Amino acid sequence: MADTQDDIKKGLAGVTVDYTAISKVNPETNSLLYRGYPVQELAATQSFEAVALLLWNGDLPTEPERAEFETFERANRDLDDDIKTVIDLLPLDAHPMDVVRTAVSALGASAADVADNSPSADLAKAKLLFAKIPAMVAYDQRRRRGQGLVPPREDLDYSRNFLWMTFGEEPVDVVAEAFNVSMILYAEHSFNASTFTARVITSTTADLYSAVVGAIGALKGALHGGANEAVMHIFDEIGSAERVAGWLDDALANKRKIMGFGHRVYKKGDSRVPTMKAALDTLVAHYGADELAALYDELETAFVARKGIYPNLDYPSGPAYHLIGFDTLTFTPLFVAARVTGWTAHIMEQTASNALIRPLSAYNGPDERHVEGYVASE
Ligand code: ACO
Hints:
Layout lengths: L22 E4 L4 E4 L2 E2 H7 L2 H10 L5 H13 L5 H9 L6 H14 L9 H26 L13 H10 L5 H14 L6 H11 L4 H13 L6 H12 L5 H10 L19 H15 L2 H18 L6 H11 L6 H22 L26
Helix pairs in contact: 1-8, 2-16, 3-6, 4-5, 4-6, 5-6, 5-10, 6-7, 6-16, 7-8, 8-13, 8-15, 8-16, 9-10, 9-16, 10-16, 11-15, 13-15
């Protein structure tokens, strides 16, 4: 039992709780490996579909494996009528994270194999969620804009189809490629808060859908996935590069956290940021978004100079999603669509060598006391 302050690892900071073969984060060398491959190499050469198979299976797919998965994924993108009905029941001002959480939960509640936690059943569920979540996210953004559902197109890859279903237009290559890079970079990151949540739920032998629903809840918070949305709120608040210095003075004086900066593990910079920043630069050039780029650079320079705290992945991805045309509230559900690959890989890894996750706590409440008038029966 922990009974001294030194025994308490607040926020589990610095605690290693298990092995994982899925990804390796090395803050000293600023590197991130998925199943041994540097994430930058994957982002430069692979589709998100191939990276999903890498995370689930341990190796990059062979050509037949890739083709088989893509055929499945393209055939299962439709938003089922019952899930559409569930989404339609939710208020238009519901947060999109609540919408995707509810839609995934509804999918699980009606899945015949929900209680089957065998490796083959869990892999099938992971692939189904991969295929279905984009339609949930795209439809929710459209209905909030008063637009109807755009059916998926089987002739488009994952990223192009996701953008097609959201905007009703086929994206140009530069946009589809930047989006694909963002999905790969967001896919996996060891024992982050949402992945750990999924592993805790899995450790009780609850089903994969329950674990993913819990992970979505954990991702929503602004200290985790919600930061990509929060970055854009900050940009809106600041308005222009000239206003950064004054805004930052006020924010720091009021002890505000600057969203999109800092990381529990990386203290010298997030390994994913240079790749996502390069993708953002291609979008800035494509859309002619020089003012946004100036604000981005000014805030980064000023904050790093003041605090020595570097941007995390949410800093470049928030503005990238804004330029592509997503509503700010939709940014974190895009993170869900990507991270569902990592979550489900961890769920399967947890099940394969399970131990119930149940840490201890140190009690600091009142000493033992008794209800007035209570007399113990003999
Ligand atoms: N803005 C201002 N100050 C910060 C920031 C920030 N973004 N990040 C850390 N600090 C400061 C803290 O105020 C604290 O200062 P203090 O020691 O004077 O009190 C010190 O740096 C340590 O910060 P902690 O929050 O204790 O460090 P921790 O490792 O727990 O935090 C976290 C990591 C939660 C991500 C933090 O940096 C943060 O809140 N960042 C903003 C939210 C964000 O961008 N989250 C995205 C995470 S990455 C992802 O999900 C892809």
